[in-house]
Amino acid sequence: MYQKAEERGNNKYHYLIENIRSNGRWKKIKIYLGSNLSEKEVNELILKKKCMLEEKVRIFREAEDPLLTLISDEDITSLERIKKEYSKYKKTLDEFSEKKYYEWFITEFTYNTNAIEGSTLSLLDTKLILHDKIAPKDKSIKEVYEVQNHKDAFDFMISYKGSLTKRFILVIHKKLMHNILWKYAGVFRDVQVRIVGVDKNLPKHSQVPIEFKKLMKWYAHNKNRYHPVTLASYFHVAFESIHPFRDGNGRVGRLVSNYILKDSGFPMIDIKYNDRRRYYESLQEADKGNLKPMIDLVTKCIIESWENIKG
Which portions of the chain are predicted below pLDDT 70? Predict the structure, then answer.
């Protein structure tokens, strides 16, 4: 944002200007301050009209691309503060503290993400399977595998150093569905599937590779354009709309969202089982073209995650 005076005839006209990039070109957004002003008058008017220019820029950006304005300036400030503090915090962690946090998070995350998908295992059951290698006698072997496999997929995700690719997502699914979907683990579905309780037509299985490729191209093109929270939220709802696998789509989607946030320097999130209604409603709103509820939920979860990390 800067001030510029333009001379026309005997008069000098003053503007407050911000340059923004639009469709690969720079565009000037202006607010008129007045003519033949003193330096003091210009400075006073800048203070008064700065908010008007910011609003004009916001309206322009929203009209050009709504995804650029779905996170409020207040939330962006909070998120960037968390990112900065989280980066400093990680540098202070000793090996013992890092291990304890990992054990706590993987237990909570595994419990909640499986519970959202219908698992009957409790948080204690999950802890016993993960850390004590004790399987509950009254639960199915499938539910035990779901816990063990989720940890394997999570460990792969947090250790992965490459880009978000098709192969990365297929490996996550293969680890997640090992000994559950057998030959269908790590491969796109070859049947039509439906989401129980949701009136939605998913792509035919023949369209899955095409739709998935479009999503990956979108991500590659926009990963530096949008805020990571917007990126993770959009990718998640688009991924769930494709539903590329026979089963495990929600769990894979939440793992990939965490990869995007982690890769951007933010704390990973854990959507709680108790928040599942809000989560489902956010997915439904996104299907109608409204991504804001999902972005708000992801923002809330990042804030909660950071509060848990700080203690």
Answer: 22-24
Do 130 and 88 have their domain in common? yes
Give the Cα separation of 25 and 7 in Å (integer): 25
Q: In what order do the strands lie in the sheet with 2-8?
A: 2-8, 11-22, 25-35
Are 186 and 170 in contact by the 8 Å Cβ rule? The answer is: yes
User: Which residue range forms the structural domain that includes residue 11?
Assistant: 2-64
**In which element (H, E) is residue 300 found?**
helix 292-310
Task: Enumerate residues 6+ apart whose C-beta is below 8 A from 305.
Answer: 267, 268, 269, 270
* CATH of residue 148: 1.10.3290.10
Write the Ramachandran bin of 133: left for phi over 0, alpha for psi from -120 to 50, otherwise beta.
left
Q: In the structure encoding, which two tokens stand for residue 218, read together?
A: 């979108």
- Rounded to two decimals, the pTM is 0.83
> How large is the greatest C-alpha to C-alpha distance in the chain, in angstroms?
91
Contacts of 74 (CB under 8 A, 6+ apart): none
Q: Which helix (H) or strand (E) holds 8?
A: strand 2-8
